[in-house]
Amino acid sequence: MVVLTLIYTKVVILRVNYILYCDESEKKGKFFSNFYGGVLVPERYFDKINLEINNKKASLNFNGEIKWSKVTEHYLDKYIDIINFFFKYINENILKIRIMFTQNCHVPVNLTKEQKENEYFLLYYQFIKHSFGFKYCNPNNEKIFLKIFFDLLPDTKKKCDKFKNFIFDLQYESTFKNSKISIHREDIAEVISHNHSIMQCMDIILGAIQFKLNGLDRAKPPGSYYRGKRTIAKEKLYKHIRKLITNTNTEFTHFNIGDTTGKKGDIKNWWLHSYRHWKFIPSNSMYDSSIKTKHKN
């Protein structure tokens, strides 16, 4: 009699979940416009990081939402403290930050009426699709699920739902498909930033970059020869944040906040770097030399 022995092999499918918080800032600035920011969080670290940031906020007596617009001289030291704490996770490459913007001197040409009307969402789509380098995020060939949380989108429900459908379809694009990134429709949502401390910390960084690039650090009240105390406090916080950025990577010693961060000889750094900027230049654009590119002393 022949005895057949069946051997069952348990197949373990590796799975990684990410949460992507997205926000936007200045739509039309003096020199730079269309600011978008994102922070990517591995879901396995989410509860721990969220709890630690909330505890840090409580220890600093931040009872409400922290954000760039609330920075004052009286709260400067506290904002420096919380942003130091936040950058700890960036330095460890647990959190990844990406910021995208356009420069006004690069003027899009031959845009259709629909493209002009939907510029906000079209740029947002490009930001999510490209800025994190998802093409290089999966060397271990794992299954990846991405959750995307937007700060409340400033448009009609019909337009916002259409945009979310485009974001949902990203998983069928070659970049996401080859990296095995899946997105569930219910995992694309709008949230209230007041309830999300990680998003609030990213807002501070995004606000600081927009503040500097548009020369707001030199702004003076009407009729005054001197800058206001709040402006001076924000400039100090910006300078501190810039120092933190350069410390995230030894290659960032001469970091240019107004330009796309270099790849440093490796295209995979689009993903590997914990912090990057992207100056988005439309493929069909012209350079207008009559438009100022920076503040003149």
Q: DSSP strand (E) fraction? A: 15-25%
Supply the CATH architecture. Answer: 2-Layer Sandwich
Query: How far apart are the termini?
Result: 96 Å
**Helicity, as a percent range:** 25-40%
What pattern of helices and strands is seen along the backbone? Answer: EEHHEEHHEHHEEHHHEE
Overall geometry comes to globular
Return the average pLDDT rounded to an integer: 91
Structural class: alpha/beta
Protein model, in words:
The protein has 297 residues and is α/β, with parallel strands linked by helices. It has a single domain (15-287), classed as Ribonuclease H-like superfamily/Ribonuclease H (Nucleotidyltransferase, domain 5). The protein has helices at 43-59, 76-91, 113-117, 119-130, 157-168, 174-178, 197-213, 229-247, 269-272, and strands spanning 15-24, 32-42, 96-103, 106-108, 143-151, 181-182, 188-191, 275-279, 285-287. The strands form two sheets. Strands 1, 2, 3, 5, 6, 7 and 8 form a seven-stranded mixed sheet that branches. Strands 4-9 form a two-stranded antiparallel ribbon. Strand 1 (15-24) and strand 2 (32-42) form a beta hairpin. It is globular. The chain starts with 14 loop residues before the first strand and ends in a 10-residue tail after the last strand. Mean pLDDT is 91; it is low at 6-13.
Sum this structure up briefly.
The chain has helices at 43-59, 76-91, 113-117, 119-130, 157-168, 174-178, 197-213, 229-247, 269-272; strands at residues 15-24, 32-42, 96-103, 106-108, 143-151, 181-182, 188-191, 275-279, 285-287. The chain contains nine helices and nine strands. Strands 1, 2, 3, 5, 6, 7 and 8 form a seven-stranded mixed beta sheet that branches.
